[in-house]
């Protein structure tokens, strides 16, 4: 069965189609890690995107629910060069079976190097994944400021029984962020991102972790004053979308990179220590460096490859944010210390101007 990937710049790529015949449209993005495909496919920040894996063989260790970042596949379509279909260890499900069960098409045997070269030259763009038995699909207009309206839960849910009580502000969080907090002995309340301030305050939280999430941070601008108020009263930590939202809440601007950073080996430099470390990343948007001038933030981490902002520290409050993924799923665990630093700040929350 043949399928086609069509990029909005007119380029088409043929491949072998797996799954039900369908036609979908989504933003085409590429991931450069050699492993970690299960974490990528289930990461809510990839919602609706068509993912191209640059590593030439994907699926070698199957799917083990252990690594899932949410309850389902979040990407809209999967493009690979080689799709592994050999033997697997007991308890592993073949990648194709997993995708087909979730109704997500895979196109294999694709010249992924050319697809990625196209995206690097023309920038992130819309694309269509079409089974060749179907008629052409009309191009849908692109939604500006996309962010899915729903959250993982409608109501606040509390898990764990540890001593520090952390509010995980849910923009569609990755489960490894929650798991990291639970491993560090926290009680975690998962808080839908549009929760009322009185409700948040009634929980007697020690700190707030603003999660990752899909889409454009500007879609949340109506909530920026609320998030600024929260971050001024609780020790806070922002990861990826959470970083972008917190920076924006204090007056910074975000912009979209040509083709984003998605992989497990992006070098970042801590500007205080000058130490370079490897980070796991998945984002299109970045905080504009020159928009930080009138904010209370200093750049803490910078991307070694392109100089973009990778993390911020507030000049006076216990508030840090990172564009990369310290929870390391998939990717290096170089930045787990950031969770420890956040919890140390949460344990001394009286140092923050607390609510009356
Ligand atoms: N991983 C994330 O939180 C992604 C943030 C945002 N959706 C971006 O693409 O930049």
Brief synopsis:
With 356 residues, the chain is of the alpha/beta class. It has two domains: 2-131, Glucose Oxidase, domain 1; 157-351, Rossmann fold (3-Layer(aba) Sandwich), CATH 3.40.50.880. The chain contains eight helices and 19 strands.
Description:
- There is one protein chain.
- The protein is α/β, with parallel strands linked by helices.
- It folds into 2 domains: 130 residues, Glucose Oxidase, domain 1; 195 residues, Class I glutamine amidotransferase (GATase) domain (Rossmann fold), CATH 3.40.50.
- Helix content is 19%, strand content 32%.
- The chain has 8 helices and 19 strands.
- The strands form 3 sheets. Strands 10-12-11-13-14-19-18-17-15-16 form a 10-stranded mixed sheet, with helices on both faces. Strands 1-2-8-6-4-3-9 form a 7-stranded mixed barrel.
- Strand 17 and strand 18 form a beta hairpin.
- The longest helix is centred in the first third of the chain and has 11 residues.
- The protein is globular and about 60 Å long.
- It binds glutamine.
- Glutamine (GLN) binds next to strand 16.
- It catalyses: hydrogencarbonate + L-glutamine + 2 ATP + H2O = carbamoyl phosphate + L-glutamate + 2 ADP + phosphate + 2 H(+); L-glutamine + H2O = L-glutamate + NH4(+).
- Composed of two chains; the small (or glutamine) chain promotes the hydrolysis of glutamine to ammonia, which is used by the large (or ammonia) chain to synthesize carbamoyl phosphate. Tetramer of heterodimers (alpha,beta)4.
- Belongs to the CarA family.
- Keywords: Amino-acid biosynthesis, Arginine biosynthesis, ATP-binding, Glutamine amidotransferase, Ligase, Nucleotide-binding, Pyrimidine biosynthesis.
- Pathway: Pyrimidine metabolism; UMP biosynthesis via de novo pathway; (S)-dihydroorotate from bicarbonate: step 1/3; Amino-acid biosynthesis; L-arginine biosynthesis; carbamoyl phosphate from bicarbonate: step 1/1.
């Amino acid at each position: 069965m043949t399928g086609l990937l069509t990029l909005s710049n007119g380029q088409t790529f043929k491949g072998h189609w797996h799954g039900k015949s369908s036609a979908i449209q989504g933003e085409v993005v590429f991931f450069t890690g050699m492993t970690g495909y299960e974490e990528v496919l289930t990461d809510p920040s990839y919602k609706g995107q068509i993912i191209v894996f640059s590593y030439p063989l994907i699926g070698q260790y199957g799917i083990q629910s252990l690594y899932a970042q949410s309850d389902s596949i979040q990407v809209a379509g999967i493009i690979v060069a080689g799709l592994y279909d050999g033997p697997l260890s007991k308890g592993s499900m073949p990648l194709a079976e997993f995708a087909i069960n979730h109704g997500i098409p895979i196109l294999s045997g694709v010249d992924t190097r050319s697809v990625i070269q196209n995206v690097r030259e023309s920038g992130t763009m819309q694309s269509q994944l079409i089974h060749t038995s179907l008629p052409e699909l009309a191009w849908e207009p692109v939604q500006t400021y996309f962010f899915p309206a729903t959250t993982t839960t409608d109501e606040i849910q509390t898990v764990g029984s540890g001593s520090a009580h952390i509010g995980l502000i849910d923009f569609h969080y990755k489960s490894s962020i929650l798991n990291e907090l639970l491993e560090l002995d926290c009680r975690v309340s998962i808080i839908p991102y549009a929760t009322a301030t009185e409700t948040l305050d009634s929980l007697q939280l020690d700190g707030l972790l603003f999660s990752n999430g899909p889409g454009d941070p500007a879609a949340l601008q109506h909530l920026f004053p609320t998030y600024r108020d929260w971050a001024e009263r609780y020790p806070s930590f922002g990861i990826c979308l959470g970083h972008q939202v917190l920076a924006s809440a204090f007056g910074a601007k975000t912009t979209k990179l040509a083709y984003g950073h998605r992989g497990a080996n992006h070098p970042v430099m801590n500007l205080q220590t000058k130490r370079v470390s490897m980070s796991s990343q998945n984002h299109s948007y970045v905080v504009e460096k020159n928009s930080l001038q009138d904010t209370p933030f200093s750049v803490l981490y910078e991307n070694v490859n392109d100089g973009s902002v990778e993390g911020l520290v507030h000049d006076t409050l216990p508030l840090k944010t990172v564009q990369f993924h310290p929870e390391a799923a998939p990717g290096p665990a170089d930045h787990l210390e950031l969770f420890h630093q956040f919890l140390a700040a949460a344990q001394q929350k009286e140092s923050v101007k607390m609510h009356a």
